[in-house]
Design a protein that fits this description.
Elements: H1 3-7, H2 9-24, E1 26-27, H3 37-43, E2 54-55, E3 58-59, H4 65-82, E4 86-88, H5 94-105, E5 111-115, H6 131-135, E6 137-141, H7 152-162, E7 166-169, H8 180-189, E8 193-197, H9 202-206, E9 219-223, E10 234-238, H10 259-271, H11 277-290, H12 293-315, E11 319-320, E12 329-333, H13 341-350, E13 353-354, E14 356-358, E15 372-376, H14 378-382, H15 387-402, H16 407-422
Helix pairs in contact: 3-11, 4-11, 5-10, 7-8, 12-15, 15-16
């Protein structure tokens, strides 16, 4: 018996419809994935009842013995997973992880560099509508028009001209490896801190299939979903902890604080109150899953599926930003297909295929229309799909976008998508 169905039939009906949507459609949004049932069990468990402001062993509430154990386990598993010396698992989201990291390393008004949102960056990398662009003097670097990759000659010139205090590498729609070593060289030349946002490739990094930022970056942030396949949330890590260079001390002893202590304080009480203990515990479950050998096989299949999709799209004359991908992310420029990103998103939605419209570098259309779409393979890989399914999906995408007004054709594709999905259920029923 479902307690929800008895207590709130309206919301139960909505939940049932969402379950059906996820089970019967193809999820190609690069930032989405499906957690295990173990993760969901912990995320929906009794730890949601517990307030635990502070950190394990230093809480402002009693009764924290067991949530302390869960948080310590999450932090230790995360350290092992990424080879980090310091971890914080309390941020509610990747954006809040970025906020805490920025507010630790730089002061409001300081100059910071980040990847232009229209070139694959993230809102928190300096968008003027976001706290980052409002609190800091952000200078945006871009990708090369010719290659679709970060233009390091331009980054070097901008860094020397503007002398940023911190540089952010990583993005939300950048298909290639994040070039940590190159960014480190530039950061060293201008005496800037280097922050990596690995929200998208974090699962690939954990599996050893994407370069690690730990050797090169002063601080690393990520979400815990996407390729890491955990609950939605954020994390902050450092490869090596170090004494803060800003002269901040422990008042009573005069000891110089480590940067880890400043980050902890910035997360709580700086920008958050009580941590979400049920989500932290669910993060611990996901980190434990990611430490298992089969997770690396899963991550490798994400990459295999992405390459199959790239091959299929290129054969059908789709333009891919940077010519392909090193990761799970593909950014498709639809300019030569004479359809906008907005129209493509709506059309594919009618065909049972979920994507998101996305600006492409040097896009002349607005963010609400766009010239491209972003697709990714984490979710369909979780379902167990491989090369044969990927190639069929590409054919359906092309069929739909080639005749977007053909409602009968879109309905037929949707029916075929539904049949395919039924062979790859997300959860046991």
């Amino acid at each position: 018996m479902s307690f929800l169905s008895q207590g709130d039939p309206d919301l139960y009906a909505i939940l049932e419809r969402e379950i059906h949507r996820e089970e019967s459609t193809l999820e190609l949004i690069a930032s989405e994935n499906f957690t295990s049932q173990a993760v969901m069990e912990m995320a929906g468990g009794v730890m949601t009842n517990k307030y635990a402001e502070g950190y394990p062993g230093k809480r402002y509430y009693g009764g924290c013995d067991f949530v302390d154990e869960a948080e310590n386990l999450a932090r230790e598993r995360l350290r092992k997973l990424f080879g980090a010396e310091y971890t914080n698992v309390q941020p509610h989201s990747g954006s809040q992880a970025n906020m805490a990291a920025l507010m630790t390393f730089v002061k409001p008004g300081d100059t910071v560099m980040g990847l232009d949102l229209a070139h694959g960056g993230h809102l928190t990398h300096g968008s003027p509508v976001n706290f980052s662009g409002q609190l800091y003097n952000f200078v945006s670097y871009q990708v090369s028009r010719d290659t679709g990759r970060v233009d390091f000659d331009s980054v070097y010139k901008l860094a020397n001209e503007h002398q940023p205090k911190l540089i952010i590498c990583g993005g939300s729609a950048y298909p290639r490896y994040i070039e940590f070593e190159e960014f480190r060289e530039i950061a060293n030349q201008v005496n800037a801190y280097l922050m990596a946002d690995i929200a998208h490739p974090s699962g690939l990094v954990a599996a050893g299939l994407h370069p690690s930022p730990m050797e090169y970056c002063d601080v690393v942030t990520s979400t815990t979903h996407k390729t890491l396949r955990g609950p939605r949330g954020g994390i902050i890590m450092m490869g090596k902890d170090f004494e803060n260079p800003w002269g901040k001390i422990v008042p009573k002893s005069g000891r110089i604080k480590n940067v880890s202590e400043l980050i902890d304080s910035m997360v709580m009480p700086g920008i958050q109150g009580g941590p979400l203990m049920h989500i932290i515990a669910a993060k611990a479950v996901a980190f434990g899953e990611a430490l298992q050998p089969k997770f690396k096989s899963y991550a490798q299949q994400i990459l295999n599926n992405a390459q199959s999709m790239v091959d299929g799209l290129l054969q059908l004359d789709y333009q891919l930003v940077s010519g392909g991908t090193d990761t799970h992310v593909m950014l498709i420029d639809l300019s030569n297909k004479h359809i906008t990103g907005k129209k493509a998103e709506i059309t594919l939605g009618k065909a049972g295929i979920t994507v998101n419209k996305n600006m492409v570098p040097f896009d002349e259309r607005s963010p609400f229309v766009t010239s491209g779409i972003r697709v990714g393979t984490p979710a369909i890989t979780t379902r167990g799909m491989g090369d044969p399914e990927i190639r069929q999906i590409v054919r359906w995408i092309d069929e739909a976008l080639s005749d977007p007004e053909n409602e009968v054709g879109l309905a037929r594709i949707k029916s075929n998508v539904n049949e395919l999905c039924s062979n790859f259920p997300i959860y046991a029923h």
